[in-house]
Amino acid sequence: MTRDLQARTESLTKLQYWFAGVLAVLALGFYLVIQRPSTARAASLQSEHQQHVAELQAAQARAANLPTISAENAELSLRLARSKRLPRQSEWADLVRDITRLSNQSSLKKFSYKYGLAKRSSTFSQLPIMLEFEGEMMDVYAFVRQIEELPRMTRLRGISIISDQKTGQVRVEMALNTFFSTEP
How far is CA 28 from the centre of its chain? Predict the structure, then answer.
């Protein structure tokens, strides 16, 4: 019976080693297949979470500026509405009347104007105007300032001023471009 007991003990010991080996393989498999990928995924999700939190904070900071930006936008829109505008082509006669009226108010002499050929593009037309006149320097200065303040888009291309020392008068040749909308 001792032999039989000894053989049974040996077989149970082998069985215990076998179960211990299977348990070790299962533990290693659990670590490699489940635990390790889950830990890596959790770390990746944590990193993404931190990145999204940073993006959210940046977006909140930008959103905090929206009332300021909206107020600035409203102010710029108001300034744009008050600024020079691009008139329709039918309004160019008004510009000539305004310039003629301003020349009379500024006491200019020998006032004349000539039109060039209009240059058209898809969004606007450009009409060159050549002005010639004489007058006192301060009157000429006032006239040029008043033209700049007209609510139409004009651009001074060139100006030539010739002074007469004897009379104190200046003779001026001024080239302007005025712009018109091609839209109806």
Answer: 59
Angle at which helices 36-64 and 66-82 cross, to 10°: 40
Cβ contacts of 32-35, under 8 Å, gap ≥ 24: none
Which residues are CB-contacts of 75 (< 8 A; sequence separation ≥ 6)? none
How many CA atoms, within 13 angstroms, populate the side-chain half-sphere of residue 110?
Answer: 10
Cα-based distances in Å from 105 to 34, 47, 165, 181: 92, 74, 24, 29
Looking at this protein, which amino acid is placed at residue 176? L
Tens digit of each residue's pLDDT (9 = 90 or more) over 106-129: 778 888 888 777 777 766 777 788
Whether the Cβ atoms of residue 127 and residue 95 lie closer than 8 Å to each other: no
Residues 6+ apart with CB under 8 A from 163: 137, 169, 170
**Considering the entire predicted model, what is its pTM?**
0.48
